[in-house]
Write a structure and sequence with these properties.
By secondary structure, the protein is of the alpha+beta class. The chain contains 9 helices and 6 strands, in the order αααααβαβββαββαα. Helices cover about 45% and strands about 15% of the residues. The chain starts with 18 loop residues before the first helix and ends in an 8-residue tail after the last helix.
Length: about 230
């Protein structure tokens, strides 16, 4: 898996001075960072000396020092970034068509703690990194806050109808759409494997991007696997 800076999650370890809390936070961060470097679980578990050397070579020491010094309360810098809520899908579709990228749309809810985790630990860092600007448009749809939005064809559509269209009956559900609203990659439901979620997310984005930029005939042939609208 290619190293992605956006997959590095900086969680708070200085927010609490209890040794157990700090140890757990550091262990989690070390594990996540080792994963981004492509280290296997055995290398991470039994080869910490080599793992730490690799982390130091890649700049991890500076990252860790910054984290301990300032005690970031979440992913670094994520507080000032917003994952915009969708109100007009036709406008998002026009932007996706112009930039030739897919739309990552997360169905979320205010009461959904896992939605907040996905937003804070993955989507916001992706926006901050700048690595996804020419790869995907990142948006969310609050299923409990809007009655209607504008659909890809410009007509009003109920949020419930969109939930049914994409089978987003669980929050969070992430779909990867082209400019017409067709699914270009398999959707992601829930947050069942946080340690690998970033990698899965990258794979889906790459699949969707390649389909969006493929020849129209190929794109239309492949789309029915994920959505009957083509």
């Amino acid at each position: 898996m290619q190293e992605q800076s956006s997959s590095i999650l900086v969680r708070s370890t200085a927010a609490s001075m209890r040794p157990s809390t700090c140890f757990q936070g550091l262990t989690s961060l070390l594990g996540e960072y080792a994963f981004t470097l492509g280290l296997s679980p055995l290398e991470t578990l039994f080869g910490w000396r080599s793992a730490v050397k690799a982390m130091v070579r890649s700049g991890f020491s500076a990252l860790l020092g910054f984290m301990l010094l300032f005690g970031a309360a979440g992913p670094l810098g994520a507080q000032g970034v917003t994952v915009h809520a969708v109100t007009d899908l036709s406008r998002e579709g026009a932007l996706a068509r112009e930039r030739k990228v897919p739309i990552l749309l997360m169905f979320s809810a205010e009461y959904c703690g896992y939605c907040m985790r996905v937003e804070e630990e993955f989507l916001k860092p992706m926006l901050i990194s700048g690595d996804y600007t020419d790869r995907v448009i990142i948006r969310q749809l609050k299923v409990d806050s809007l009655g209607e939005v504008r659909d890809f064809d410009g007509r009003p559509i109920g949020v419930e109808a969109l939930v049914n269209r994409y089978g987003a009956f669980v929050t969070p559900t992430i779909v990867f759409l082209d400019a017409e609203g067709r699914q270009m990659s398999q959707k992601m439901v829930g947050l069942t494997t946080p340690d690998f979620f970033g990698g899965y997310l990258d794979e889906r984005i790459e699949t969707a991007l390649s389909r969006v930029r493929a020849a129209p005939v190929m794109q239309c042939q492949d789309a029915p696997r994920y959505n009957t609208a083509c």
